[in-house]
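Run log // design_07
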């Protein structure tokens, strides 16, 4: 009995303390034009938009320091993000966007790169979307065929039931006629005819 109690105590302690993951705060970094690279504290996180998660409980703090983060475009232009975020206003997460400085040459090239990258992304996603659409159409066709088969089976069952009812009615009519004929014959025999 003591072993079970100790085991249950240890198991509940582990479940309460060991399994709980720390609260995380979601920050989505974006840029205008899109597809700038996100660099935070010297780490390259790739082309934006990028989602990062910070281990902080938004219910207990008012601000979060995201560190030294910047959007970096291919032309060499860059823009820094404000490193302090007021998470009291956005307790579930926030999206922050860095706008490319207009006074640095190369805006047209950066905008064209963003448009090309988004087009390429759409082209890469398109076959998957088309395949998904084909699968949905195939599923709909299959469901339609199954429905039609079920309706045919119901119609056949109804026809069989109607035929059986007709046979039963015919048999009943025949039995009534036979009984009537037998009664008539008996009456005629009983009366000497």
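design_07 sequence
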């Amino acid at each position: 009995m003591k072993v079970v109690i100790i085991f249950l105590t240890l198991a509940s302690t582990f479940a309460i303390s060991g399994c709980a993951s720390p609260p995380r705060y979601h920050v989505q970094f974006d840029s205008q034009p899109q597809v700038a690279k996100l660099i935070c504290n010297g780490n390259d996180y790739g082309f934006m938009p990028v989602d990062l998660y910070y281990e902080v409980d938004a219910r207990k703090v008012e601000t979060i320091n995201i560190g030294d983060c910047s959007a970096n475009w291919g032309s060499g232009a860059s823009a820094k993000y404000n490193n302090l975020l007021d998470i009291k206003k956005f307790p579930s997460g926030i999206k922050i966007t860095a706008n490319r400085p207009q006074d640095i040459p190369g805006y047209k090239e950066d905008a064209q790169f963003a448009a090309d990258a988004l087009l390429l992304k759409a082209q890469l996603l398109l076959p998957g979307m088309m395949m998904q659409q084909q699968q949905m159409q195939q599923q709909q066709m299959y469901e339609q065929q199954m429905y039609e088969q079920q309706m045919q089976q119901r119609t056949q069952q109804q026809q069989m039931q109607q035929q059986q009812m007709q046979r039963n009615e015919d048999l009943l009519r025949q039995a009534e006629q036979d009984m009537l004929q037998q009664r008539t014959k008996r009456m005629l025999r009983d009366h000497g005819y």
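Helices lie at 2-17, 107-190.
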